[in-house]
C-alpha cells in the first residue's frame, strides 16, 4: 500500500495541504526529526552520507525487511489476561490477532518506508527530499482517515469514526459495537469524545518518527563487530555507548551477545525514549 501513497495523493497536494497550526507543528517536527536521523544513519554506513543502497544493504545484514518479533505488550500471560476486564481483554485479543496477521507485511513495509523517502528515485537521499516525503506520507494518512468526516467539522464523532472500523460484535444503542468503541477510545487521547486532526496525525507521526530513530540506531550498531564473529559483545558495544545498560539489556536479551543478523529485530520495539539518548 505504502508504495503508492504519494503517487495516489500527489506530492504537491500533500505539501500544500491546509492543516491546523497544531497539526502543522507535528508535520514539521516529524519531518525534521526523521530527516536528521535518516541522514545520520546514511553517514554511518557510507562516507558520501547520501547513498540509499549502502544503507539498505547494511540494514539487510541485520534482518531489515524480515518480519518483526511480537510486540512485548502483546506477550501477556494467561494470568494477566484473566485479570483484565472482559471488554479490555477482547480488545487486546483482537489487536493481537490484527498484529499477527500484519507481521509479514510489516517487514516489507519497512523496506517501502526507506524507498518512499527517495522521491526522485535517484538512490540518494537529501534533507529536503526526506522532509517532503515524510510530510507527504503524514498528510496522506491524515486525509485518508478524515474521509469519514461526514459533517465536515474537521473532527470525527464516534459514529463518523466507526465507518472506518469493522464491526466485530453486537451494535449497541449509540450505533457502534465494542470493537469500534475500543479503537475510538484508544485514539481519543484527550478524552473529549471526539477525534480531532491532531489526535489522528500524532499517532502516525509517532510511528514514522520511531522508524527513523530505529534506522539510525541500527546503522550505528552495524559496524561494531570488530572481531567479525557475527556477534556484538559488551566490549564492542561499549565503543558505541559506554555508559548504557538499559538498551544493551534489551538488545542482548537472555544471552551475552547480540547476533549481528538480528539487530533489526532486537531494536524493533525499543521505546524512542531509550534510543534517543544514545543518538544525541
Ligand atoms: Ca533522491
Ligand atoms: Ca465530524
Ligand atoms: Ca479527542
TrEMBL record:
Organism, as annotated: Luteolibacter algae
Ranges for domain EF-hand: 221-240
SUPFAM superfamilies from the UniProt entry: EF-hand
Keywords of the record: Signal
Signal peptide residues on this chain, from the entry's feature table: 1-17
Name recorded for this polypeptide: EF-hand domain-containing protein
One family name in Pfam for this protein: EF-hand_5
Gene3D superfamilies linked: EF-hand
Amino acid at each position: 500500500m505504502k508504495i503508492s501513497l504519494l503517487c495516489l495523493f500527489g506530492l504537491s497536494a500533500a505539501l500544500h495541504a491546509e492543516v491546523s497550526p497544531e497539526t502543522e507543528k507535528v508535520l514539521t517536527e516529524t519531518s525534521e526529526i526523521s530527516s536528521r536521523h535518516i541522514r545520520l544513519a546514511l553517514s554511518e554506513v557510507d562516507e558520501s552520507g547520501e547513498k540509499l543502497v549502502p544503507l539498505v544493504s547494511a540494514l539487510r545484514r541485520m534482518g531489515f525487511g524480515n518480519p518483526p518479533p511480537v510486540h512485548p505488550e502483546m506477550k501477556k500471560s494467561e494470568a494477566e489476561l484473566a485479570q483484565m476486564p472482559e471488554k479490555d481483554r477482547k480488545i487486546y485479543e483482537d489487536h493481537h490477532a490484527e498484529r499477527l496477521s500484519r507481521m509479514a507485511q510489516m517487514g516489507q513495509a519497512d523496506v517501502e518506508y526507506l524507498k518512499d523517502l527517495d522521491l526522485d528515485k535517484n538512490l540518494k537521499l537529501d534533507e529536503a527530499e526526506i522532509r517532503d516525503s515524510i510530510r507527504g506520507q503524514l498528510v496522506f494518512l491524515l486525509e485518508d482517515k478524515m474521509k469519514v468526516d461526514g459533517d465536515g467539522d474537521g473532527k470525527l464523532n464516534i459514529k463518523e469514526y466507526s465507518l472506518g472500523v469493522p464491526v466485530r460484535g453486537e451494535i449497541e444503542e449509540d450505533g457502534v459495537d465494542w470493537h469500534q468503541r475500543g479503537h475510538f477510545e484508544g485514539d481519543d487521547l484527550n478524552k473529549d469524545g471526539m477525534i480531532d486532526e491532531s489526535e489522528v496525525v500524532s499517532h502516525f507521526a509517532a510511528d514514522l518518527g520511531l522508524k527513523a530513530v530505529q534506522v539510525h540506531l541500527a546503522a550505528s550498531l552495524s559496524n561494531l563487530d570488530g572481531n567479525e564473529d557475527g556477534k556484538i559483545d559488551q566490549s564492542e558495544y561499549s565503543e558505541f555507548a559506554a555508559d548504557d545498560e538499559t538498551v544493551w539489556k534489551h538488545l542482548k536479551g537472555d544471552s551475552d551477545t547480540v547476533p549481528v543478523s538480528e539487530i533489526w529485530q532486537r531494536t524493533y520495539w525499543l521505546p524512542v525514549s531509550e534510543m534517543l539518548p544514545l543518538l544525541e
